[in-house]
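Supplementary material to the annual report.
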Amino acid sequence: MNVTAHSAAPVDSAALESAAAETAPASPDLSRSISLWFGENARDLPWRRDGFSAWGTLVSEFMLQQTPVNRVIPRLSEWLERWPTPKDLASVPPGEAVRAWASLGYPRRALWLHAAAGQITERHGGIVPEDVDDLLALTGIGDYTARAVAAFAYGHRHPVVDTNTRRVIARAVTGQAEPAPPSRGRDLEAMSALLPAEPAAAAVFNAAIMELGAIVCTSRSPRCAVCPIQDACAWRAAGYPAYDGPKKAVQKKFEGSDRQVRGLIMAELRATHHPVTDAEIEGLWPDAVQRSRALAGLLADGLAVTTEPGMYALSQG
DNA sequence: AAAGCGTGGCC
DNA sequence: TGGCCAAGCTT
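Predicted assembly:
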């Protein structure tokens, strides 16, 4: 299967990865320094424990899509205790997954994870696939998550590029304060150029550069004084120039937004174990137009269902 | 392909 | 205070 079928980007990343596999990383010192630092400074996180399952890795990656580590950890352990395999999750109604998602945010991810569990059960005998294209074919899994699971759960050699990785490469390699807007092909190529040849070392490096971006080379206030690659950093060498690339899209204000209204309705649906009435929903938000727009959106997304006229609940099945 | 999608912590 | 940010994905 052609990986580019999943994207308009004219890059054959499979060929890219196999070509890179035959060569040493472009900056072996940089890669080695980051991995060595990781060996000494990696946080003790659940998904880094020995014996953590591929399913656990997949669940953690879903939860970590846009939600900070510290908020994920307690939900993840509850989740895996309750649903230790994909089949266990697939056997309950999607609304149960949405309820257990609690306040992690972006509850569509819970729906997608539930759908992916069903697909894994049906297509892959209940075993999380290890092939990137098989992973990409699952609902809610994109370029980052597919490669993260293949690399971290199965030890395969793939470039794993997340927002932390992009930032570290932008600074250390490119010499810019912030990365340009994400570009699938360019990002995979840049990471491939740094990736160690050995699969195990590559998996470590993927985690290591993410970790460096998460706790040292941070977005707001990078701790350059304790950075293990400060002497090799192109941004430092250039005198820490300010970012001058294209402006990033501003995140819209949450207060008063449709997203806030959706969140209030979802919180109500999660909190009650019986259908919620129109009257109860009215009490959540004063603006009727915005309220009905939010509710219609939740119904369209499958996050809520109508149990009978004027009554709503989480999806039952 | 730009926009939409939650929630909470931080400075 | 309020804007910014957080292991992205889908349409």
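Chain A has two domains: 1-243, 258-314.
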